Amino acid sequence: MFLLLFYLSLSQVNSVLSTGGVLQVDYPDVSVNAPDNGNITLQGGRGGGSVLFTPGPGRVVYFEDVDLLELLMMIRSLPPVWIEHSSVGFYGTFYGGDRVNVKLEAQDPEGGNLTYEVVAGALPAGVTVDKIRGVITGIAPDEEALYVVTIRAIDPHEKFADAVYTMETHEKNQCVPYPCVNGGLCTNAFNDFNCSCSAQYGGKRCEIACLANPLGVGNRAIIPDAHMTAFLTQEPGDFWSNNGRLGMSGNGWCGKSNLAWLQIDLGAPSRVYAVSVQGRSTSYYTRTYSLSHSLTGSTFTTLQTPATNTTKIFTANPSTVDVKVTLPAMIDARFIRFHPLTYASAAYPCMKVEVYGCKP
Ligand SMILES: *[C@@H]1O[C@H](CO)[C@@H](O)[C@H](O)[C@H]1NC(C)=O
Ligand SMILES: *[C@@H]1O[C@H](CO)[C@@H](O)[C@H](O)[C@H]1NC(C)=O
Ligand SMILES: *[C@@H]1O[C@H](CO)[C@@H](O)[C@H](O)[C@H]1NC(C)=O
Ligand SMILES: *[C@@H]1O[C@H](CO)[C@@H](O)[C@H](O)[C@H]1NC(C)=O
Question: What is the CATH number of the domain that holds 243?
Answer without folding.
Answer: 2.60.120.260
